[in-house]
């Protein structure tokens, strides 16, 4: 049963970490790019 | 290189989808999360043990779905690479989709190997065995790690897109060959001792079958959510590249000063 | 097209003949690999004999990576690659020419390595048609895949590390099939080489086709 727990934990921990990394990076980039506001240079 | 404040509008149903993509993605994510939660609850508590494998059968609800998603992800990368190379459908959308799917695919592929290994240890007594499926999956991982490495090294977005598309397509073409050869290799070595936890048994416990279905759907939706978000991240990263480039150009021009740009503006590296 | 391919192949081979990098560096490297295997396996004669086929092909694969890198490195200087692009040669011909040159060098290398395996591992080469046929098919596949990935990696600064990572997993089926085919030939009674020859043939066809399709656009990019 410990193997089962290990298996499930590996899967969900990895997916969670990956999702977390993506969302954090997205937030950081949208903030620095000021998406939505007109900070574009032609 | 023009910096657009908004992406060019897409016509038709694809456009409708893309405009609603934010909401759709969030819904997808929530449903996936619910599904994954259900999988855990069902898988770890509410389903019975297997007659043969005992509690280990619970890994049935993570290993095959994760493997399926890995193959799905690489399939999407292959199709997206093809779509990018086809002159009529060439668009940055396909390149970014291919990259996003490949990255998610690598994660799921690694998870496939990890869960396979974790399942194998108590079952076969070893952490690894060279059966056809594991070997093919390991090579698949190597192929796409190489693909991602290639993307990271190429700086110019157009060259990167073209090169990666070819590399992605050519690597995908290799997959059936790998599968074919490894399968023949392994059927020579051992009798097909594939893990079949009561599959051949027509009385596969219904809770198990339902949980399996839920887990497949949940992981697939999780894949869609991850790729959708990774794609959006790719769009943001592209904009950042753009902006960084323009900043560099502007600075260089400012450097050149009122005396005129006698110094050549060199941006980008080979 | 064939004449243009012969031109390109001739150029590459002439450079090789004059610089002798293949003879003086790649072949010795491959032989050193054979020796390293013997050391790693504690000079277990029986084991080495049994494993000859596989060890031979691993050595060939590693040497092939070097040969491919060399083939594209010769054009890295003096904007020779630009010259190749602007020469008006049919890109498919360039592909065939470069692949043929690499293939020929690999073939010579294989003869040397086969001698090495016979001498160092005391293995006996039998069943010439299978041995030569599978080697020929494998070489075509290796050369085609190598040329394709070689041009992808050619202009990158990290080419030395990226090329092996890209190429070796792709040619894993060649390693597998060629080893099995040679094993079937060298160790009588260890199976039928027909399936493996088929896999080698499929691989060769797929990668030659891929080269024809994509080498041109990749050359433009590099």
General description of the model:
The complex is a heterotrimer of chains A (42), B (270) and C (222). Chain A has a domain of 26 residues. Helix content of chain A is 76%, strand content 0%. The N and C termini of chain A lie far apart (60 Å). Chain B has 270 residues and is an all-alpha fold. Chain B is globular. The relative contact order of chain C is 0.15. In chain C, α1 packs across α5 and α6 runs antiparallel to α8. Chain C has one domain. The two termini of chain C are 22 Å apart. With 222 residues, chain C is mainly α. The chains are: A mainly alpha (42), B mainly alpha (270), C mainly alpha (222). Chains in contact: A-B, B-C. At the A-B interface, α1 of A face α2, α4 and α7 of B.
Tell me, briefly, the overall form of chain B: globular
Structural class of chain B: mainly alpha
- The portion of residues assigned to helices of chain B is over 70%
The DSSP helix count of chain B reads 7
Query: What percentage of amino acids of chain A are in beta strands?
Result: under 5%
* Class by SSE composition of chain A: mainly alpha
Report low-confidence residues of chain B grouped into runs of 5 or more.
Answer: 190-200
The separation of the N and C termini of chain B measures: 18 Å
- Determine the strand fraction of chain B and express it as a percent band: under 5%
Give the strand tally of chain B. Answer: 0
Q: Biggest protein-protein interface?
A: A-B, 27 and 39 residues
Counting copies of identical and different chains, the oligomeric state is heterotrimer
Please tell me how large the radius of gyration of chain A is. 18 Å
What is the terminal-to-terminal distance of chain A? 60 Å
What is the N-to-C succession of helices and strands of chain A? H
Largest sheet of chain B: none
Number of helices of chain A: 1
* Radius of gyration of chain B using CA atoms only: 23 Å
Largest sheet of chain A: none
Condensed summary:
With 42 residues, chain A is an all-alpha fold. Chain A has one helix and no strands. Chain A has a domain at 1-26.
Helices and strands in order:
The complex is a heterotrimer of chains A (42), B (270) and C (222).
Chain A: H1 2-33
Chain B: H1 12-19, H2 21-46, H3 63-85, H4 92-124, H5 132-153, H6 157-189, H7 206-256
Helix pairs in contact in B: 2-7, 3-4, 3-6, 3-7, 4-5, 4-6, 4-7, 5-6
Chain C: H1 2-19, H2 21-40, H3 45-73, H4 80-86, H5 91-120, H6 128-154, H7 159-170, H8 172-186, H9 194-221
Helix pairs in contact in C: 1-5, 2-3, 2-5, 3-5, 3-6, 3-7, 3-8, 5-6, 5-9, 6-7, 6-8, 6-9, 8-9
